[in-house]
Design brief:
This protein has seven helices and no strands. By secondary structure, it is mainly α. It has one domain: Up-down Bundle (Bromodomain-like). The longest helix has 34 residues. The N and C termini lie far apart (66 Å).
Length: 202
């Protein structure tokens, strides 16, 4: 697969992340106005897979960035490295959280993803309007457009949409709280099983 083909593929995934964020926001609003609607049920269904979706996007984003630097030969600028620092740990942490069904990972992961998203916003507008310059070195300028698909999708834009999708999925997992409810029920059962009067009754 050529670099151009890979760029189109990753750009389409980026736009899919945008569509996912918009769709989930719409479902969230419909859920609030009509808790018993089909939209609310779909929102809850997404919540059951939200951690896995967030982990998948983080892993694919990490893999894509490694492809561009290690295979395509693109040299990351300083802002690219900052975004990588925010994204790479999420690939591991979110995968572990998905396996453990720990929806409380949002407490730690959302701030990290938000920092990465803020850097990506700044980097995205630098590449959209490169005449303004930047603070990166002249050898690896932040304004270099290694990827510019559909006349607006750049590498930092891809990172931004990935961070936005991850944040959205983590908040969906927190809002639905399906796993947390199951854990609470399990804890109640454990306490009830340990009560002396019930042990004697057995």
């Amino acid at each position: 697969m050529s670099t151009d083909t890979a760029s189109v593929f990753f750009a389409l995934l980026s736009l899919l992340c945008v569509a996912g964020v918009i769709g989930v926001v719409v479902l969230s609003l419909l859920r609030r106005s009509a808790p018993d609607s089909a939209a609310a049920g779909l929102f809850d269904d997404i919540g059951r897979s939200a951690l896995w979706l967030a982990a998948l996007v983080a892993v694919v984003t990490m893999g894509g960035s490694l492809y561009y630097s290690q295979v395509a030969g693109f040299v990351p600028c300083e802002l690219c490295w900052f975004q990588r620092i925010a994204m790479y740990p999420l690939a591991l942490l979110l995968t572990i959280a998905a396996v453990r069904r720990d929806d409380r990972i949002w407490i730690y992961a959302v701030p990290q993803a938000a920092i990465g998203a803020a850097i990506a916003v700044y980097h995205t507008q630098l590449q959209a309007f490169p005449d303004q310059g930047g603070f990166c070195s002249t050898t690896t300028p932040c304004t270099t457009r290694y990827v510019w698909e559909f006349n607006f999708v750049s590498l930092p834009f891809m990172a931004l949409t990935a961070f936005a999708f991850i944040i959205t999925m983590l908040l969906v997992a927190r809002a639905t709280g399906a796993d947390g409810e199951q854990d609470d029920e399990f804890e109640v059962d454990e306490h009830e099983a340990a009560r002396p009067d019930q042990v004697g009754a057995r």
